[in-house]
Amino acid sequence: MEELMWAAVQNKHNPNYKIEYEAVLRCLEYWKQNDFMESGNMAKIFEHLYLKPEHFKDTQIKLSLQLGVSDRTLLRYRKKFVQLFAYNLEELRRACRRSAV
Fold first, then answer.
1. Is 26 helix (H, G, I), strand (E, B) or coil?
2. pTM of this structure
3. Which domain of life does the UniProt lineage start with (predicted)?
């Protein structure tokens, strides 16, 4: 699923990835709001992992060092990011199907 997120960002101007890219942007907005409410830093981590193509091929260890979190914590965060993306993607696809009918 992360590969789909990365592909959507790399192809953000491609109409074939419109829904996927919108799902990524919705995730970013969610994490920004969550950071505001919880005084967190998840949006910055999300942006680093999924909106900056220069980091897409970085190793888990390198990413954890760059972001200042343990590799185990980063793995937990990535699971949350992917889970939220999957939810947003399904919601957008469902809305798209309803509007097509």
1. helix
2. 0.94
3. Bacteria
- Report the alpha-carbon distance of residue 14 to residue 51 in Å, rounded: 16
Residue 35 CB: number of other CB atoms within 10 A?
Answer: 16
Answer whether 31's CB lies under 8 Å from 39's CB.
no
The burial class, CB within 10 Å (0-12 / 13-18 / 19+), for 54 is exposed
Helix runs in the chain, H state only: 2-10, 18-38, 42-50, 60-67, 71-100
Confidence label for 69 from pLDDT (cuts 50, 70 and 90): very high
Q: Are 49 and 60 in contact (CB under 8 A)?
A: no
DSSP state of 69: S
Residues 71 and 58 sit within 8 Å (Cβ to Cβ): no
CA separation, residue 58 to residues 48, 50, 66, 71, 90 (Å) = 11, 11, 10, 13, 28
Token code pair at residue 37: 């409410």
